[in-house]
Amino acid sequence: MAQLIKNQTVAVDAWKTLELAEGETPEAVVLPAGDIIFPFAVWQARKAEIISCHKRIGLLLQPDERVEEVAADLDYFIVIAVNFPKFVDGRGYSTASLLRQRYNYQGELRAVGDVLHDQLFFMQRVGFDAYALKDEKNAVYALEAGFSPFSDTYQTSTSQPQPHFRRRA
Amino acid sequence: MYKYDAIDRQLITERVEQFRDQVRRWKAGELSDDEFRPLRLQNGLYIQRHAPMFRIAVPYAMMNSAQLRKLAFVARTYDKGYGHFTTRHNMQFNWPKVEDCPDILAHLAEVEMHAIQTSGNCMRNITTDQFAGVAADEVIDPRPLAEILRQWTTFHPEFAFLPRKFKIAISGTKEDRAVTWFHDIGLHLQQQDGQIGFRVIVGGGLGRTPIRGQVVREFLPWQDILTYCEAVLRVYNRQGRRDNAYKARIKILVQALGVEEFAKQVEAEWLHIKDGPATLTQAEFDRVAAHFTAPAYESAIDESAFADKLQSEKAFARWVDRNTHPHKVAGYSAVTLSLKQHGVAPGDITDAQMEKVADLADQYSFGELRISHEQNVILADVKKSELYAVWQAAKENGLATPNVGLLTGIICCPGGDFCDLANAKSIPIAAAIQARFDDLDYLFDIGDIDLNISGCMNACGHHHVGHIGVLGVDKNDSEFYQVTLGGRQGNTAKLGKVIGPSFSAGEMPDVVDKIIKVYVENRVDEERFLDTFDRIGIDPFKNRVYEGRAHGKAKAAEKEAA
Predict the structure, then answer these.
(1) d(CA A103, CA A107)
(2) Full-prediction pTM beyond 0.90?
(3) Alpha helix locations (H) across B154-213?
(4) Which of A157, B326, B331, B377 is the most exposed place for a label (fewest CB within 10 A)?
(5) Which CATH number, 3.30.420.10, 3.90.480.20, 3.40.50.360, 2.40.50.100, labels domain B309-396?
């Protein structure tokens, strides 16, 4: 279990992620009750079924799964989790930017997987607002220092849509 | 040159503290080696053969004398009294301690220098022409837009963990001196219908798979450069290969998709962000450009004494011929101080030399200097009436070897003496060739020729675009050297052709000697090496170099007999 950082504190995670065991398929897997984060493939295969029996729905996107393919479904999701299988795999930053900036996704956007202290600043800027910090890492220190190594930024981003040059006095 | 304002200063100061904290957590075991590696690389810190290697950025080649004095201080205090200029506008130190690096960065921050993104899979230092702003053939000064791009690339939140490194080069001259055809993005500033903009080239690169870049857009208005780069980077970040580091550069993606499809995807992405807030404003351009206004040039410089010296002192005339470059202002020259003294590792400079160059910059060139991708130092604004004094001072300090663009003005990576990636040493090869061709008369007779040496296929020594290229290879744990001919940089940039089987280190001076002899014997009129090569082709060179040398079946038989 990772440590969920949300709203500047370590939060209780009410969500469970559906994991397919070996041999299970998106088409046949039993859909558990409760607050569930569904893998993209399960959502694709069982959309109608999930909508009919779940009020609160989460989605898990892997780095190679394209935002464009769920763009029309975003209103269904309370949480979208973007997986970072390794922290050096930066595709999730583009996924987040697109979800927030292009498709105007307003729900929780959660970084999961290999989520570490030194990436939190970047994650926050592209639009993540929840972070499943890796287990053995220091969440207290992450909250204290991980989000604020820099006091300003040059570029446009989800958290700062105006570049610095347009914010000059 | 650009002077930091509040945000620039704040960010590099905060960067020092961030890195200090990362080093502390790594030492304390809170960061594993694997977790620390990309962080230290993005601060220019490699763990190398003997010690860490620390790479400091010199953005678009510009430096002032205070910065160079600070580098001299770092070399003296934390290293062994010297540094090395690379082919991408960086200075490398080979011997600092990891624990000292945060302090080194703090010293550098005092003079507005840093090591941000000088390594790692991120957007690297922006490079351009060492004569930017002064070149006689310049159309548009690339430096304001280079600085704007520097800021945009610094800590970009979406592109800090790309599939592989990403290098951008800008050129604003008729003759491309920034190797733009061999960068991930190459930008040519130009004017079209009274509008300033870029030709955008994507997907070039040297390294393991050398590929010439391709034009994805013939004209992009300058205001759109950030949004367009964002589109290129986003397509690359999402689709570039991450399963194989050797196939992860954008050049491989462009090849796989085809340039038309790649350009189409970029345009589609760009349409979403075009004209958004990241579109550059005239006010921002003007603010940055104000840092790059011309210094107070004098008019009516008396060149008579200079002309006399040219007549009376052959050595001075030779130096002027090779080591000065035409300036756009009458009465001025750009001076190249050669870091290619025979027998010294190409690009290396001692702390004492750095101090001297800083003094020369203050005295003769408005306190500024540049470094070139050929690994030399440039004083860009020297009055012709003072060239003689500069030459004498340079000579006293081993900085006046008149070999810029000549055979011994070798571009050379640190190679197997220092670099962990290298397959073979490169510095001793350069030294052996310099020793063989130590006769200045002969060097001048041979004329314009680029000899580039890389110690491995990562091609830091740009061997592919050398007229003569030398690549160190590893064969059964021994060091060998593969030779290419006919490569070139500039507008007609292309890759050299492999001449044949590789050579041992000991054979290299002879091999180069034979290649040069074929040229000298075959040249007509004023032909340069490349002209002769283009006319007669590779075969005469190949035949001479391998003459009497057993290879193929004969070599196998020879081995058997032994």
Answers:
(1) 12
(2) yes
(3) none
(4) B326
(5) 3.90.480.20
